[in-house]
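Subject: for your reference before the review

Hello V.,

The reviewers asked for a structural picture of the protein, and I figured it would be easier to keep everything in one thread rather than splitting it across files. Below is the amino acid sequence we used in the manuscript, unchanged from the supplementary table.
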Amino acid sequence: MKPFIANVSLRHWLVWSSAIIALVSSVSITLGAQSGPPVQRTIALEGTMKTFYRAVNTIIVTTIDGVDHVYHFTKDLVVHGGKGRGMDALEGLREGSTVVVHYTVSEAKASAREIDRIGDEGLKTTEGVVTRIDRGRKRITIRFDDGKSETLRLTDRAAVEAAKDVDQAATTAVKIIVYYSDEAGRKVAHFFKKAS
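And here is what came back from the structure prediction:
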């Protein structure tokens, strides 16, 4: 008789163990399928300035594909290549000016944190092949077509938000466009992206 009881107990144990494993697996699959809150990071977008609405702290920027993007901003907005801070710095931006808007999205509202003016009075651009990115030390090294290399300092924002696909430059030649300013004789990269 004992072998029969041992078999019954073993069967019960196997059935209960299987049921518990199935239950735990289904709960973990259900929890894994639920998504958390969206990542709160800064995103950069290049486009042309379309409209500035001072009264409602809003700008509209049109991307290369013709889509208009609306951004709200606060008085502490930083504008590189502008004159001053916040709304005063935006006064110099005219329709058609090329800009890079660094923004975050919260509750379906895009908020501009920083705007880089590109061109005559703003950031300059250069192109080259990435040879090294050191986000920790905030440096990027690029090689130009003439074979010369240069290391530029990255702003805090550029070190964090710039395209991660450019990081694979160690294994493949990635040509990029760097948007930089000249600060005390050093080139400081504010934004970079893959060249098209």
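For the response letter, the relevant points are probably these. The chain has three domains: 1-36, 43-117, 124-194. The two ends are 79 Å apart (CA to CA).

Happy to draft the paragraph if you're swamped.

O.
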